[in-house]
Every structure is written in C-alpha cells, then in structure tokens.
Amino acid sequence: MPFSKAQQQAIDLRNKNILVSASAGSGKTSVLVERLCKLVLVDKISIDRILAMTFTEDAANEMKDRLKKRLQAETQTDYIQSQLALLETASICTIDGFCLSIVKNYYYKIPISYKMSKSVASSAQANKAFLNAYNEACNSIDTNDFVKLKLFFSSLGKTEDDILSNIRDLINVAMSKPDSNEWIRSLMNRPCSEDTFNWFFQYFIEQIESMIEICKNMKEADEQLFSLKEESLNTCLDFLYKKDYAFFKKQFEIYFNNTPGFKKTINKVSYEKEQGEFKKIEGNILNVLYEKEEYDQDLNNNIERINTFCTLSLLTMDIFAKKKKEMEIIDFTDMEHFAYKLLKQPMIQEEVRNKYQMILVDEFQDTNELQENIIQCFARKDNVFRVGDIKQSIYGFRQARPEIMQGHMDKEDENSCLIVLDENYRSNQSIVEFNNEFYDHIMNTTLLGKNFRQDDIAKVGTARQKDAEQHPVRFLYTEYLSWMETQEESFNKIQAKSLHKNNVYDLIANDILTKHEQGIPYSSICILTRTHSPQEELKKVLEAYEIPVLAEIDHGFYTNHAIQIVLSTLISLNDPNDDIALMASLCSPIGNVLYNDIAGCCIDKEKNTSLYSLVKDKPFMQSWQQLRQYKNEPISDLIRHIYNHNDFYFNYTTNQDKTNLDQFLEMASQFEAQNDLDLFLEQIINDSNQDAVGEAYPYGKDADVVKIKTMHHSKGLQFPIVYILSSHTTKDKYSNNPVLVDPVLGISLNALDPSLKFKRTSLSHLAFVTKKNHDDLKEEMRVFYVATTRAEKELVIVDYVDDINSYSSRLNTSSLLEKSSYTGWLLHTYLNKPSSLFKLDKKNQLYKRPLPLKKDDDIETNQFYQGSISSISGQTASAAKQSLEWPIMDLNKKISTTRGTLFHEIVANCAFPYQKEDCINYAHKHNFTLQATDIKQLLSLNECHIYKEMMQNKHEFECSYIIRENEKIYHGFIDLIAWHPEHISILDFKTDTVQNETELIDKYHAQLDAYKKAIHTIEPDKKIKTYIYSFHLRKIIYLNQ
C-alpha cells in the first residue's frame, strides 16, 4: 500500500527537527522503519551513524528485523554487505540500552570500574541495597529530627514502613530530574508556590461547579429552591475566581446556614440519589473549610518536617550509590544519570554528536525530563526525528511527561517541523468514528479542558475499512437490581452484586464461544484488563469453558511445583542442614525417598539436631548424595545435573513445568558469577519472596489461543476482536497518604492540629490531591483510548451495573469527580445522547459456569534421537599452541596463576588511569596482597602511550569469540580488543617472568595468531594489530606477523 502524503513527508523530509504526531493505527511504525531504510539505502548514511531509540526491546528487534529484510532484498554490493555486518551492533535500542552503551564506553570518566559498568543489578539486589542504605541513613540523621518525623507519621496512623515507602516515592520522582539532588534540596525551606495556591482554589471551584450543575438539573423539581441555591453558590464561585479564600469561606457558611435543605422527596418524587450526591459535596467542602490562619500555620509547621524528610532522602540516595559501587552494580536510573553526566562533558558530547548523523525517537510521548535532557546533550540543531501520540501517554508512574511532547508541538522555529498522521489504517470505519465521537466528548470538558483537538480526529485510511461489515461498539452487561426482581430466591443487593460481578467472566466466555462457532479462531480475540489482578481468575473461567487462553499473570513462576523442587534441592545441596529444603528435595522425584523412611529416623530427634545429621549415612541417601559431587560445578551445569537426576525433567514434569524449568536454566546461565552458589541463591530467594515473575508461556507465538493482556501491554498491538473488562476498582490513593510528591509542585505533608492528636488536611495536600486527581483522570482516559483503538473489526466492552437508568444524566464535572471509570463515561455519554455507533447488549440471566476441568496428567515420556552421531572437536586458542603431551595433574593452586588472573581483573575492573589505592583495594577484596613490584608493574600501564590510545577508543576486556575451522571449534576470551578508526588492536596481558621479549613472542605467537584469525572472520575489512603487554618487562610488544 502506498504511503499517504503526510507519511511520505515524514519519510523524506531532511535537515529539520521533525515531530510526527501519529494517532493510533496511523502506520507510525511503518513510517519510522521506512525512514530508517531510506537513510541507509538512499541517503547512504551508514547504520552505525544512526541512533534509533524505541520504548521496548521488542520494538527495537522488530525494527532491526525489518531493516535486515530490506537489506537482504537489495543487490549485495560491498556497501549493503557492510550494513548487514553492522546491523547486529547498530544503535537500535531502548534509551536505557543507549545509556548503558555510553556508560560501558566511558566508564573510566565517571569513574567506575569496568565490571560495574556491565553489571546490571537484579531487582532483589537493588532492593536489598536500598533497604540497607535507608537503615544507615536513619542512623546517620539527627536523632531528634528523626524522632519528630516518626512521631508525625505515628500521629497520622502510619508506621516507619510508610516513611520508607514515601522516601521511595520522592526518590523515584527525583531520579527523573537531570539533577536529582538539587531538585530535592530545592524543596527545603520553600514557601508555598503560586501553582500550589491555584490548585488549592481549583479544589473548591470544581466542588461548587458540581453543586451548581445539580441545581440546574433539579430546577424542574423545585425552581425556587434550586435557583436560590444556584445564585448563592455562584457568589461563592466569584470569590474563588478572585482567589479570596476568606470571603469564599464566609459566603459558603452564609449559603449553608441560610438556604433551605435538599429533601429526598420533592412533590412525591424520590431524588434520593441526587440528594446524596449533593450533600456529599457539601460535606467535602465543610470538612476542609478551616480558617486561613490554620492553613498558614500548618504550612509553617511542616517546613521543618519537610526538611528532615528531604535530608533523609538525600542521605539514602548517597549511601545507596556507595553501596552499589561497593557491590559493583548499576540499576536503570544509574544508566541514565551516568550517561547524562558523561554527555555533559564537552569531549564526550562532541564525540557522540559527531558519531550520530541522525537520531530517531519512538514513543516520544512517554519521555521524562532526564531522557529529554540526555537527547538534547548531543542532538544537532536539525537531526532529531520524534514520533509519538500524546493521547497514548500512559506511563505517568514512570514519570513520563506528555507536556514535553506538547512543548515540541507548540514550538515554531525554522529548524522544527510538525507532521500530523491522522489517517487510521487499522480499524473498521464504525470503530474509528466511535473513538472520534467518544473521546471528543470525554476529553474536552469544563473540568479537564481541551485534550482532544481537531488534529486528533482520525480519518479512515482505506476503502477496505469502509466496505467491511460494520459493527457498533457493544456494551455487554447484566443489571442486578432488575435481575433481583425476577428471581424466586430472595437476594439482597450485596449478594446480587457479588453474583453479577463474578458472572462478568462468564459473559465474555459465552460470547467468545459464539464467535468461535461462527468460525472465528481464538487467536483473533484478545481480552484487555486494566491490571494483572483479574487475569488469573478470568483464565480459570475460560479454561472451564474449554477455551485455550494465554494470560499475562505476573506471578506464579517461583511457586510452580517443579521450580520449588529444584530450588529446594539447590538450597539443600548448598546447606544440607536446612531441614525444610532437604525434606522437600528428598521427598520429591529427585530424592525419591519415602516419607516413612525419613520419619523413622526422626523418632528420637533432639531439639537443634539437623535432619541431615540423622539421615546422611542411610542407604536411601545414596542417590541424593550423588548430586552433591556436582555442588562446586558452574551453577548452570549443577542445575542440568539436577534436571537429569532420576530423569526428573523428562518423566516427572508437565509441559508447563518444562517451560518454567527451561526459563530457570536460562536465568542461571546468564548469571555472571557461575561459581558463587551462595550469591545466586540469595538473589533467587529474594526474587521468589517478591513473587513478581509470571510463569513462562507454554504456547508458541502462532498458537490458536485467546490472549489476555493488560491495556498497557496492548500498546502497539492490534486484534480483530477486542473485549475490554471495564470494571476495575478506583481507590483514593492520596488523601490518606502523609506525604505527596509531584514533579511540578514538589512535596506536601498532611497536617496535625496543635495537640498532634487530630489529622487535618493541609492547604498543600488539598492542592496536590486535586492536581493528582486531574492528572490521573487524564491518564486513565488515555489508557482507555489505547484499549479501544486496538480493535480492527469488533469492540466489546463488558461490565455489570446496578441500574442502567442511574447513568442517564450527561457527563459533567460531578460525574467525572465520582471516578465512575470507563462504564460511567460510556453510559453517561450514550444514554444521554444515543448513537448508532454504540449498542447496549443486556443479558437478563446469569450463566451457569461449568465445573473446572480436571486436567489429565500431561507428563509425557520424551522421545530420544536414535540416529547416527558425528562430532567435532573443540579447542581454545591457548590450547592450540600446546604440544600433544599427557599433562601432569597438579592439584595445588598455583600462585602464579592466581597472580596472573588477578592482574587481568584489576586492569579490566579498575578505572583507567590506574590508581595505587584502587589496585590494592581490589586485590585485598580478593584475598591477595600486592607487593611493591606488583604495584609498579600494574601502574606502568599508565605510561604506555599505545595502551592509553586503546583506552580512549571503544574497547572491551575479556572479549569472547568462537570460530570453526577444519572441523574444530576454537573458542576463548581475548584480554583486550580496541577499535580504532583505521584498525583493530588485540592485546594479551602476560605476567610471565622472562629475560626478553623474544621469549614471549616464541611462546605466544600461535595464540595471538588464533586471536587475529578469529577477529578477521568478524571484521574482514579492518587491519588488525596484535600486541603482548609484559608486566615483568613493563613494555608493550608488537607482533609484526
């Protein structure tokens, strides 16, 4: 399909900073990839001169795959082949991936060790380090100040855990700022800002406006009463617009005391719902109608508490950073902050700016302040291409700031260009028109302002979408109040509501079965949920109806039975005196021990006696003891032995078990410290305690299954038929929180009366809650927009309601403030103004759910390969130089080998230029004491100009390689490779005691030849130079082969 005029402009335009505002389904990914392809194929900009940043790794991989296919389809010239060779290492990655590459390249400028630059912390490691840092910070801060802070939290019914949680909140927001420490310091001793005062008044304005809306709607019932109320409330509103709190307070009290009340029944008609809503709003205002002096006093009282809280946060951040440096790990925030710090250095900034001729940024609407500043550091005046859609900015919890994109959209200068992609190529015409109509209505309101503009109105892109069978958006629901009247059995409202809530899953299941009977494959259907929480139960219900389903359940991996057995075995092998782990392992198919055999050994067990001490010599322990001989093998090998023991993996696990076990082995294989079982178990146990990892998927990508996804994870995807589970709980997240943090307003504390016994809402808290509710409401609408724009042919929204007629009033400030969620927005919109684009589908009776299917034992006996076997031999480059002699086994650890390994690690992990103290400390941490000669030999590298040049260019220590030659596999690690503009340098470190350089050349030239041959196969067009650095001779030796 040819590109549209706007799409082609986005692909072809050059020498501008381009911002593409691309609505859902407008083909922005195709445009982005086509622009990338043209830059490489037509403009002949080499792929290594382009930076393309995506939001996810999957998106980056897809972009690489598309470019690879285009390159492979071209005539294979030298240029095309060079681009294919560069593709795997191209800078097509997430922004975190890009930042990590900057850190790895320039780690010595931070400075951190090379090891730290490439060691990304697990969530368990980072969490443990943070907790330790927080505890140390609590001990370091002024005791009196900390006691006062704890007393404040305690008086508000909170604990020290809440302090920790709020500290995390502040630090999370701060870390999205270019200078986190400075931003937190700016919050201390700060008076209340004008923005905070504006949001404070906004709270009262929207409450009064809601009351006025109700009065207008009630005039038909009692014109005189509600006109009087409306007039008095409008006077209140005038004072609020003038920012005169004292007069507003006085006027509202006059209104409340002198205006007749709102009765439940007027002229024999019940208005109980409207009266309840009106009185609730009155109560909201009266509850916070404090004297101005009280508000002012609360602000003053909180300054000292805010200072203590900020000081504690700064201390925690500082200690956390030190602990990560000690552990030699970085987390994701470090990647961005270290990269920003490096890119602020003029030399690095210039290098990176010169390197990237073009910069492409996808999903720009989800950029935060720090990420925007990182891009600005090295961007040229006219080489950034950004793509995004503000309506799809749904990552506020990650500090995404859609106003950053809005600022670029509003920018008008000669170097900037805005292109709007407003044609939808995904959804049928009825769905496109529904989304236009619905979001134009709910995103443009008195409360929230205008958030759906003329440019956001999508046009249908193809005739196919118009000619296809059109389906109105369907609201599939049950109504429990009317249902109660039809039942012979008596139900109260709570019981009826619960039954209908549970039956929502059955509504979806039966509707899917109807579709499937019509010939629609399950793989065409996706169910979207707001969060992960309902997915497990929804999956069980669909499976009860024999519907195959793939859900994104975010837990359960570590509680899987097979994983539990393997974990218990690992723990018990590492520590046989762990009774619980040992018992679990022995009684599993791995140990294959009968429970009664163990029980018989424990009859006379004394307290504090381990189970292992009682059973270790028993005959039934022989099988388990066989596993212990592998305890000191690399972790991944040990796990393979466990899987194979007693044929556990093949004969005692289900398909789901095997999928999980495969994933567990992959995790273990990627663990860097393969010989540190203690560290591996510590990390895995911490992760398992959080239970935040979902089970591995047992289905292939193309399996015919219904998919269940969260709305966030559906972004960028599309499905023929989409069901949206509309019901979800909207909790008050803020009013009961002692501390609130906002990226714009800063920090707020709630208040206590002078006796410190009673909580009251502070002025700043009222302002923060109001702003946060606005921000959340806007983002929730954007989340729903993402969900409703995934459907190609049919969109079905599913829920239950009490009484459909209770939504008959129009969508206004009052109904938006109710937090009535998606169902409320839909019904308030379309019951008040019906449309052919929206259809009600009521089911009068509840479905009877089938009993859950009892799964047959799906443990299979695996078939093994019985054919002929051929083999190839493997060899390392170091071994290639050795003669074929029978080696003499030496079981003693050689000091020379230990010293040589340590020298390699020091140069790889300490910052260059090397410092004496760093070298000594590193050796000490590894139980080795450097002699004076050792230090001189290590520091001699600082004086080697060739080595300095290597450190200034892109380089990598311990670079692995593998090549095949003459039916042999050569594999190994090269000590150091450096990529210079015109050549590649290979350097091998040697600690041998020799008389001259000839000895080293004779001894190691074969090894260096193998290295050179390996790199030549990867970089055939580059000149390769090989060197030996002799620590003993303190010189670099060039091998001129």
From TrEMBL:
Boundaries of every UvrD-like helicase C-terminal domain copy = 429-716
Enumerate the GO terms in the molecular function aspect: 3'-5' DNA helicase activity; ATP binding; ATP hydrolysis activity; DNA binding; exonuclease activity
In this protein, which residues make up the domain named UvrD-like helicase ATP-binding? Answer: 1-428
The reaction(s) this protein catalyses? Couples ATP hydrolysis with the unwinding of duplex DNA by translocating in the 3'-5' direction; ATP + H2O = ADP + phosphate + H(+)
InterPro entries assigned: DNA_helicase_UvrD-like_C (IPR014017), DNA_helicase_UvrD/REP (IPR000212), P-loop_NTPase (IPR027417), PDDEXK-like_dom_sf (IPR011604), Restrct_endonuc-II-like (IPR011335), UvrD-like_ATP-bd (IPR014016)
Q: What class of enzyme is it?
A: isomerase
Where, by residue number, does ATP bind? A22, S23, A24, G25, S26, G27, K28, T29
Q: Name one GO cellular component term.
A: DNA helicase complex
GO BP annotations listed: recombinational repair
Q: Which UniProt keywords apply?
A: ATP-binding, DNA damage, DNA repair, DNA-binding, Exonuclease, Helicase, Hydrolase, Isomerase, Nuclease, Nucleotide-binding
Quote the EC number.
5.6.2.4
Whether Plastid counts among this entry's keywords is no
The record's listing under PROSITE patterns reads: UVRD_HELICASE_ATP_BIND (PS51198), UVRD_HELICASE_CTER (PS51217)
Name by which UniProt lists this protein: DNA 3'-5' helicase
Q: Which organism is it from?
A: Faecalitalea cylindroides ATCC 27803
